[in-house]
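From the thread on structure requests for the teaching lab: each student submitted one protein with a one-line request. Submission from student K.M.:

"Model RidA family protein from Flavobacterium cerinum, tokens only."
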Amino acid sequence: MKKIIFTDKAPAPIGPYSQAVLSGNTLYTSGQIALDPQTGELVIGDIETETKQVMENMKAVLDAAGMNFENVIKTTIFISDMNDFVKINGVYGAYFNEKTAPARETVQVAKLPKNVNVEISMIAVL
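Reply posted by the TA:
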């Protein structure tokens, strides 16, 4: 049985997908980009600001499912420029305990939705 997770504290889906789906005790999130959930506008200034908005959006989705970053077991980070990795990693890392951080891969891609620079998805377990 699956349960659709939705919160107005994260950007509403802009297509035929859910913010997250809870199946059993496992949460699968859709990728989050740096959209302000209140205005629907992109939050882009520098890569750190963009990444922080992505992580805050993800925090809201996790919270809506009754979880937090300690529940995250796997993340995928898509970035448009691998040269931004260190800065993205600095912001991303502030949300996790290094000793219990999730597994992760980071992939440079040719293009992301709305021409953003970073998109992150997660898998979490209760």
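TA comment: Strands lie at 2-5, 20-23, 26-29, 72-79, 103-108, 118-125. The helical segments are 47-64, 85-93.
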